[in-house]
Structures are given as structure tokens and as C-alpha cells.
Amino acid sequence: MFKVMAVNAGSSSMKFKLYEMPEEKVLTGGNVERIGHDDAIFSILAKDGTKHKKILPVKDHSVAVQLIIQGMKDEGIIQDLKEIKGIGHRIVQGGPYFSDSALFNKDTEDKIESLIPLAPLHNGPHLIGFRAFKKALPDVGQIAVFDTSFHQTMAPEDYLFPIKREYYEKYKCRRYGAHGTSHRYLAQKAIHEYLHDKKDTRIITLHIGSGASLCAIRDGKCVLTSMGLTPLGGIMMGTRTGDMDPSVFNYLVTSTGRTAESLFQEFNKESGLQAVSEVSNDTRDIEAAALKGDEKAKLAIKMWALRLSQFIASYACRLGHVDLIVWSAGIGENSPYFRKAVIDECTEFMGLKLDAKKNEETYGGKEEIISSKDSSIPMVVIPTDEELMIARDTVRLLKLK
Ligand code: AMP
């Protein structure tokens, strides 16, 4: 038995989970939010399952790491730092370099650094997190687990954009996708537990949260995913546009006088369900408004459901045959109403059908088959667990026993 940490460092936050491995038991978890502020928030799960919270100044990520370590000691979760045998970090962008998780060494660090222009809000803070842990625990092996690596099996016809080749060659401009750790977790679990590791499995995984992406997976390998160069691509999301005619960008820059950067930020942070519904980016609020008859909320749901259903149909066409559709993440796991809105669009042609009762009863972390017996393709809700995948990769790559 030994302990392994999964860390997700953002620009002003540091989320963590501590596992006992190989049992995969969660010992604690928590977050340091508002790093850089005098009123940062540190929360940690105590042994009795309650959440302990402190408000205090946290100057930088190194202080956050000290706080996490001390917090785990104070809660009696670890006695000695030597109990921690490995640390895995979530890294948003691995570019074309990483088709698997990697040992955090100088080469890995340099490559992550070189990819900062592709993920300016994430890769920089991830490195700060890594360096802060290295300072605190210099002898502990660290692993980088990339959101993009699972999608590196895509073929050029899927990852290239129809633009001049020099943009790919000089600037690495191509589809990378995201949520790969989640899609990989879902695929492994689905293929093992629901398809009994049979040969030539073909599945579609739907990671549908505030950010959302689909993945067409054949034999456990990604064939195609919906996010593009950045997470802005693909289906309509909580606050992101998803795919649009690229000329919208140029037209709005010229006609509004706004800068490309400010529109880009708006397409990421103030568009999607939020912009169309004018209610919220949260499906719970939009559902409540639609049920009260709000026309914009109803339109937002219809637009969202149509786009998602079109992606599902095109991915099914691409795979030729689908054994299983997996729903996951905030909306996929919790919203029977939004799941039904999508499946209603996939019934006439594709023959997808929900079991109404199972769909209604599946939320809040439940794993359940939600399709009816006569659905053309079975559908299951599987709660995702990216941190567990990070912990497993850490054990695997550090060869911990
Ligand atoms: P995620 O990004 O995976 O954390 O998903 C967050 C989104 O999931 C929220 O913005 C909501 O739209 C949706 N969500 C979370 N919980 C629920 C719930 N209980 N019912 C409906 N939607 C939910």
C-alpha cells in the first residue's frame, strides 16, 4: 500500500486528491482557490468526510503546496511525507509530442513550456504547480497526464484542417481535442465492463459538462473527437460557441470594431447556452426557465440538442457500427431532461431510445443503462473520474508496487 496524489493546477487554484493505491481508495481531496490573494480559500476533506475550510493569504503556488501538505498532516491523513510515492499532474495541452502520459523530466517540462501559446491559461500554471511540488518533495517521481494524448491516434484526415499545410508544419495548427483523460477512462471502463473486452469494439463517449466533447473510439483508440485546436471547437457548450462558419469571426471584427482577442474571449466565455438562453450557462437554470415557457431557453435547448445529435449521427456513420454510447460529466451524468432532448432527435433515423424511468432516475453519480431494450444502440451513464486515471497512470509509469 502506498499513496499517490493527483493534482490539477490552474492559474489561481490547485485541486488535489490523495489515493491509497493499488486499492484506489480516496483518502482526501481539496482545493486551494484564489491563489495570489489575501483571502484565498483552502478546503480539505477530513477523515470523517466533512469539509474543512480556511480563509488565509496564499502568496503563490509554493505556499499552496505547503498548505496542502500541512493540511494532510493536520488531518492525520499522512504522518510522513515519505508515504507519498508519486504525483500525477493534469496537463491540458501536450501538442503533437505526447501520445501517452510522461515522466516529468527536463524534456517534458520544455515541451509543455513550448506549448504555452496553445494553452495560455493552463500550461503555464501546470508547470508552476509541478515546480512547487518538486521543491517540496524533490525525491518523489512526478508524471504529466495530458488531456490531449488520448486523441493522438487520430489520422491526418481527421486532425488536419483544410488550410495551407505550412500552418500545420510551422505553427502546429491542427485538431488536438481535449477531455482525453475522461474519454480514456470511460472507454476503458465501458469496453471492459459492458463489452467484456470483445474484439473490434466501437463506442461513442459523450463528455458533456460545461465544456463538452464527443469521441468516436474504435478498439479503445480515439478515431475522432469534436474539440479542435482548442476547446472552443465542436458542439455548442455552456459558454462556448462550438463549431461555426469561420467567417462569423471576420464579419464581427469588421462590423463591430471589436478586437479579435475580445471576440475570441466572448466566444469562449459568454456564448453557447448562456448567450442564446440569456438565462444562464447552467442547464438547471435553463431547464427551469424552459419549463416556465421561456422561449429563449427553449430555443437554446433545441439548438444545443440538434447540434449534439448531429455529431452523434456523424460519429456513428464514421464508425460504421456502434456497440455502446456512454454519457458522462456534469450534464451527461445529471440531466435527464437534456439527455432526452438529444435522444428525441436521434430516434426517427437512428433508432436511439431511452428507458424513460431509468433516464429520470439516473443522476448524482449513478452508473446505469438508460436505453430501452429496443434501442438500436445501448446507452449507459458512467460517472467520469479523471483523477483516478491520473493516479493509475502515476502508478503505471513510476512502476510503483
Ligand atoms: P462539469 O463541467 O462537468 O462540472 O459540468 C457542469 C455543468 O453540469 C453545469 O453547468 C450544469 O449545466 C450541469 N449540471 C451539473 N449538475 C447538474 C444537475 N444536478 N442537473 C442538471 N445539470 C447539472
Brief overview:
By secondary structure, the protein is an alpha/beta fold.
Q: What tags apply to this protein structure?
A:
Nucleotidyltransferase, domain 5, 20% strand, 8-stranded mixed β-sheet, single chain, globular, 2 domains, binds adenosine monophosphate, alpha/beta, 401 residues
Word description of this protein:
The structure is a single chain. The protein folds into two domains: 2-146, 2-Layer Sandwich (Nucleotidyltransferase, domain 5), CATH 3.30.420; 196-386, ATPase, nucleotide binding domain (Nucleotidyltransferase, domain 5), CATH 3.30.420.40. It has 15 helices and 14 strands. The chain has helices spanning 61-74, 106-114, 123-136, 156-159, 165-171, 180-194, 247-256, 260-269, 272-277, 283-291, 295-319, 329-334, 336-344, 356-361, 386-398; strands at residues 2-9, 14-21, 25-33, 40-45, 51-56, 84-91, 102-103, 141-146, 202-208, 212-218, 221-225, 324-328, 368-369, 379-381. The strands form two sheets. The chain has an eight-stranded mixed sheet with strand order 5-4-3-2-1-6-8-7, with helices on both faces. The chain has a six-stranded mixed sheet with strand order 11-10-9-12-14-13, sandwiched between helices. Strand 2 and strand 3 form a beta hairpin. Helix 10 packs across helix 11 and helix 11 (295-319) crosses helix 13. It is globular, with a radius of gyration of 22 Å. The mean pLDDT is 96. It binds adenosine monophosphate. The site of adenosine monophosphate has 14 residues, from helix 10 and helix 12. Adenosine monophosphate (AMP) binds at residues 209-211, 238, 281-284, 329-331, 334-335, 363.
